[in-house]
């Protein structure tokens, strides 16, 4: 402590879901994909492990920005890429969300948002979700709002709002930046990307970690009008010129090009989500309507913390948040069918 800056002393960092090395663990705590990444992406990465690694990568990751622009019907100047969407979001907090008036986000949402706000000394206020744990966009019409960040679908609830709602929010807040974190949108949400052309205040953030099964690669990106993207680049180029390595760019490009594999993977997760939801309902859980690759479930009688602990003893890991309004919920990643079966067997033993 004695050598720490006052800033380092004051931080309360984000705690990611644990990554223990336990044989046979059913790991449903960090929303990773149970499926392997695209075989084409793996092949491209093996091929990229060559002599060229002695050279720095392209600082703006042009190949990946061009591929993503074409995929989303935008131009490369509308795309910013980073080392995971956590890094992209961190840059957005400093580049776009720090203002004199407070940043707004839901009281129940991705728990990294208050951490970045603290890191960058950003004033913020939380806006309560409604009684159905849903974002109610009219509640964001406050006198003092400097910026807004929303995850859609929201985390850890999995609940999504419509593109129409996002459009209405952008209209109501045309004078401040709005960041929409679409980490889970591929699993059933409506993307805000078509709203970019008409809304100079919108940034959409995406990740390869969930729907593209590449959490280990660390690739995320932001889409928006070029003026906003430029602000992100200014922060990035004041922090790390080369956030994406050559292998990551090769893998990410090939993953985007493998659309058939991507669509097939999404179908499997969505099917298994329906199965897991049905099984857990039978066991007495109430489950929020999920548009994500996880479900947020509360048992009618058993306490969340106790269930999480009892599951861990049976080598099943789920995420439990000891936070107001959600302490009785478990956030359970959708795994493969055999993982759902093991989860259900364990819960059955615990509850009966
Ligand atoms: C997982 C997640 C991220 C971060 O993803 P990375 O790209 O792996 O850094 C961002 N936002 C939300 C809401 C997430 O759940």
From TrEMBL:
Its cofactor is pyridoxal 5'-phosphate. Pathway: Amino-acid biosynthesis; L-histidine biosynthesis; L-histidine from 5-phospho-alpha-D-ribose 1-diphosphate: step 7/9. Keywords: Amino-acid biosynthesis, Aminotransferase, Histidine biosynthesis, Pyridoxal phosphate, Transferase. One of its GO terms (molecular function) is histidinol-phosphate transaminase activity. Pfam families: Aminotran_1_2. Its EC number is 2.6.1.9. This is Histidinol-phosphate aminotransferase. The gene is hisC.
């Amino acid at each position: 402590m004695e050598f720490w800056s006052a800033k380092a002393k004051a931080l309360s960092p984000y705690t990611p879901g644990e990554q223990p090395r336990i044989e046979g663990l059913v790991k449903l705590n960090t929303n990773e994909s149970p499926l392997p990444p695209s075989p084409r992406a793996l092949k491209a990465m093996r091929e990229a492990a060559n002599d060229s690694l002695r050279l720095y990568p392209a600082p703006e990751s042009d190949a990946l920005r061009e591929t993503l622009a074409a995929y989303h019907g935008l131009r490369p100047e509308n795309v910013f890429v980073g080392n995971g969407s956590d890094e992209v979001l961190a840059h957005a907090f400093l580049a776009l969300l720090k203002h004199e008036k407070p940043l707004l986000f839901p009281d129940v949402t991705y728990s990294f948002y208050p951490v970045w706000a603290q890191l960058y000394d950003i004033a913020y206020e939380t806006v309560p979700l409604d009684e159905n744990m849903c974002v109610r966009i009219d509640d964001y019409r406050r006198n003092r709002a400097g910026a807004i960040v929303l995850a859609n679908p929201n985390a850890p609830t999995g609940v999504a709002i419509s593109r129409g709602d996002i459009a209405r929010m952008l209209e109501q807040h045309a004078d401040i930046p709005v960041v929409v974190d679409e980490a889970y949108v591929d699993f059933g949400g409506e993307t805000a990307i078509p709203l970019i052309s008409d809304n100079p205040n919108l940034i959409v953030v995406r990740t390869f970690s969930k729907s593209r099964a590449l959490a280990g690669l660390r690739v995320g990106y932001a889409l928006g009008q070029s003026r906003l993207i430029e602000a992100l680049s200014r922060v990035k180029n004041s922090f790390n010129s080369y956030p994406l390595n050559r292998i990551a760019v090769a893998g990410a490009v090939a993953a985007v090009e493998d659309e058939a594999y991507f669509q097939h993977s999404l179908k499997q997760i969505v099917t298994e989500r329906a199965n897991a939801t049905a099984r857990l309902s039978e066991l007495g859980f109430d489950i929020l309507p999920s548009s994500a690759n996880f479900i947020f479930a509360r048992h009618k009688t058993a306490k969340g913390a106790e269930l999480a602990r009892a599951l861990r003893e049976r080598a099943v890991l789920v995420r439990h948040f000891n936070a107001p309004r959600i302490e009785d919920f478990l956030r359970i990643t959708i795994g493969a069918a055999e993982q759902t079966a093991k989860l259900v067997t364990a819960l059955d033993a615990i509850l009966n």
